[in-house]
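Worked example 3 (structure in, sequence out).
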């Protein structure tokens, strides 16, 4: 039994809100739109530019979203892309 991470610490809520507002504006959404996906168990994948189930992301407890910014498949695709195009 565990509470959602964003309610676990006093003062955490406001910090989370500003982090989520920033994240939402980056992808052209309002805070409310962002949270409706978030509360549905979805996270934004910065690689595929879409909402995906949080289960397919890597857990990153230190981040405000609780997961990596791109999904597991994206990490694989990115590493393949990096091998093809050496920068
Ligand atoms: Zn993805």
């Amino acid at each position: 039994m565990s509470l959602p991470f964003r309610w676990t610490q006093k003062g955490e809520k406001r910090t989370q809100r500003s982090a989520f507002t920033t994240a939402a504006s980056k992808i052209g959404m309002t805070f409310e739109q962002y949270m409706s996906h978030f509360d549905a168990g979805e996270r934004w994948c910065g690689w595929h530019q879409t909402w995906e189930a949080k289960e397919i992301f890597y857990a990153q407890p230190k981040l405000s979203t609780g997961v990596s910014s791109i999904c597991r498949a994206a990490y694989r695709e990115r590493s393949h892309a990096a091998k093809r195009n050496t920068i």
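Notes: The helical segments are 12-26, 31-39, 72-84. The mean pLDDT is 87.
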